[in-house]
Amino acid sequence: MKQQELEKVKEYKYGFTTDIESVRAPKGLNEDVIKFISNIKKEPEWMLNWRLKAYERLKNLKEPNWQKPKYPKIDYQNLYYYSAPKSVENKPKDLSEVDPKLIETYKKLGIPLQEQKKLSGIAVDAVFDSVSVATTFKDELTKKGIIFCPISEAIQKHPDLVKKYIGTVIPVNDHYFATLNSAVFTDGSFVYIPEGVRCPMELSTYFRINASETGQFERTLIIADKGSYVSYLEGCTAPMRDENQLHAANVELIALDDAEIKYSTVQNWYPGDKDGKGGIYNFVTKRGACRGKNSKISWTQVETGSAITWKYPSCILQGDNSVGEFYSIAITNNHQKADTGTKMIHLGKNTKSKIISKGISAGFADNTYRGLVDINKKAKNARNYTQCDSLLMGNKCGAHTVPYIKNKSSSAIVEHEATTSKINEEQLYYCNQRGLNQEEAIGLIVNGFCKEVLQQLPMEFAVEAQKLVGISLEGSVG
Amino acid sequence: MLEIKNLEASINDKKILKGLNLSINPGEVHAIMGPNGSGKSTLANVLSGKNGYEISGELKFQGEDLKELPVEKRAQKGIFLAFQYPLEIPGVNTNNFLKTSLNSVLKSKGENELDTLSFLKLVKEKCLELGIDEKILSRQLNVGFSGGEKKKNEILQMKILDPNLCILDETDSGLDIDALKIVAKGVNSSRNKKKSFLVITHYQRLLDYIKPDFVHVLSNGKIVKTGCGELAQELEKTGYEKLN
Question: Which listed site, A55, A99, A149, A427, has its alpha carbon 20 to 30 Å from B106?
Fold first, then answer.
């Protein structure tokens, strides 16, 4: 390897490409491609019609452009909308049939799929480009009545559940990227937790983009039936390429009476190189509906990757006494940009929401918190607490906070706190004097800054996330 | 241990140290006294390697030239500075900070890092020895600490990191008599043949508890007088004025 490449690999250790033969849909976006996807997934007709409805709608939509990070025009006709390893064409029945190259890829990413090496206490669905290649612990979960499988499989095996819930939180006629996803989505996870069941392990999906010139359109649907509980985590990585790749996901969560969903994201897509070349456009729609009374949805996100991160995981608090939470760490370094936050829509009585956002900017990066707290007339005694903290490193980066508050309920209480600070030279000096080098010191200070969010993560991932926070900022000072 | 010859230091083109000479042998306790603005804190900063100073002259620690070494390397080699104003670091647990520091120092020496249990044992022992309430360990580093607690925390860190040269930068200022005794205890119980101390202070009060081998008077960037313990008492009576 050339010296330059070596350095690149050191910066982003998930940047490798798996050399594997793949099946692709013809390039471009049109009805035939949508039919191709639907056909290869062996979907029932209603699903295809649903996709085509979305596509019709898409034709009349324009890409939004109100966001802070601008990007060059995406040529949607010059993308592949489906790409899958040839070896999964005939869906492998179990792991012994999965292409060893794929197993090796996930092993390199720290996600062992083999039976004997499975991560203890975590069931994993591994999505590679447009298909799910393996799901672990399936049998154990089935015993409890829990469904955890690729959404393409759920469409075939559990059509009633999918039909009942898909598009009920993110309708087929939503904004541009969400609608695009509805038309061309390929794979993602489906979770159903039956009434009264507490999911005994973490459920996790690991998304990997491998093919070039390909968009990834993940669709995830999680339903927590009455009185159930589930904790779900997604992780994401992609190879290093000079092109920008689009990841436009839709994630829908539905919590019925007394149910709780905890959704955590550790997003580490390829961020582009030091000069801002390449990287993933992470334009994602995530929305949860607290449909039942006393239900709770909690989003935790650690966003360290992507050239541009543009997402607002939101909660629609319909049920009385329902609770929405959003905990976010967004780290941007070099030329990365993020415009992220949440929407908390209070509809039910005594609904509560909490927003804790930590934005960290270094290098030439730009980081925006944008959020909406919308309290309906009927949302008596609604409460919101928002705290947005920004940390700047160096003097060429930016941090912005754009909170919108709409309150139509006279009994509601809304609080907003915001701070912006710079990493203090004196703090660094103090840490250095105790024997910590510059990077250890920054890692320590930044982890302290993010602590309230990090402690929301499931234990197994908190340690990883802490390390990631340090690594993402390496080389940002001095 | 420490060899300083004709040390000059300026910051923002202003010369603060103007040819300072000082030599400290292992096991010695030196006190530096002097009026405001004489360069006491600058000396502490320059020894620890703080950025922003233009430096010339000779600065040797255990025979090695310090001038090119960054702050953390000097710390790892055994230079400890108890800060006049210890910094607050929100969200960072004091225990965790201490453990990370100690392990960095141990690692740099090629020694085994301490696991959590052995570390906790060590830190409890030191708290007990100094009479410091263990509760400060679970709090965020220096956040909301009283002046006294911050200084006690500095002494605790000094005990745990076990450096060769301890510099105390006006550690006594703002302390009540009980906290002062804890600071003094921390120093006195650490005194041995290998360890040296540089105690920077305004007042003779601290030197009632820590008996220095030498007292130096710093004035206008130079050491103008050196004596034994009695010099401090003399200064307390006559003030610094007469020396100029």
Answer: A427
What are the beta bridge partners of residue A38? none
Contact (CB, 8 A) for A409 and A346: yes
**Where does chain B show beta strands of DSSP type E?**
2-11, 14-24, 29-33, 54-61, 64-65, 79-82, 165-169, 196-201, 214-219, 222-227
CATH of B2-243, one of 3.30.70.100, 3.40.50.200, 3.40.50.300, 3.30.70.20: 3.40.50.300
User: Looking at chain A from residue 449 to 478, which residues have their Cβ under 8 Å from any Cβ of chain B?
Assistant: 449-452
> Residue B165 and residue B60: Cα distance in Å, rounded?
12
Report the alpha-carbon distance of residue B49 to residue B74 in Å, rounded. 7
Q: What is the mean pLDDT of chain A?
A: 88
Report the percentage of chain B scoring pLDDT > 70: 98
Q: What is the pTM of this model?
A: 0.85
pLDDT tier for residue A477 given thresholds of 50, 70 and 90: low
Query: Residue A68 falls within a domain, yes or no?
Result: yes
pLDDT at position A230 is 96
Return the number of other C-beta atoms located less than 10 Å from residue A284's C-beta: 26
| Subunit contact B72:A444, Cβ cutoff 8 A | no
Q: How large is the average pLDDT for residues B31-51? A: 93
- Which residue of B11, B69, B98, B100 is the best one to mutate when testing the A interface, meaning the one whose CB has the most A CBs within 10 A? B100
